[in-house]
Each structure stands twice: as structure tokens, then as C-alpha cells.
Amino acid sequence: MTENKGNILTAAKRSAMIDLTIELIADGGLGALTFRSLASAAGTSTAPFTTEFGSREAMLKATIMEVWRRLGIQDL
Fold first, then answer.
1. At residue 55, what are phi and psi to the nearest 5 degrees?
2. What integer is the mean pLDDT of 39-57?
């Protein structure tokens, strides 16, 4: 059961990061979005974002995929 709990926490952390990414894009546009701006808004270092996504492009792709999932879009 510990493994499942870890998966839930990891998913919740990733979801929170994506939610924050969406908020920052809405407030400042894509140009203002960096790991530093995310870290500042989250009150943390850039390490969690770099570890989770690896690159800004991967973070944006994950965010777009999540927005599509939430909207019920399967494929374009």
C-alpha cells in the first residue's frame, strides 16, 4: 500500500505543478514562464520542476496534455 500512496502523492505533486503552470501562463503569458518563475510562485527552488519535467518544453507539453485531458479531448 505504501507504493500506491507514493504514486498518489507523486500524481498530486505533478498536478499541482501543472495547475501552477496554467496560472502563470494565464497571468503572464508563455514568455514569462520559466522554472524560476514557477519556483518563486511555489516558494521553492527550481529543483522540483527540473526533476519532474527536465525542460521547459517538456513541462509545456505535459501542461497542454493535461488541459486536453481535463477538457475531454482525446486526439486532434
1. -150, 160
2. 94
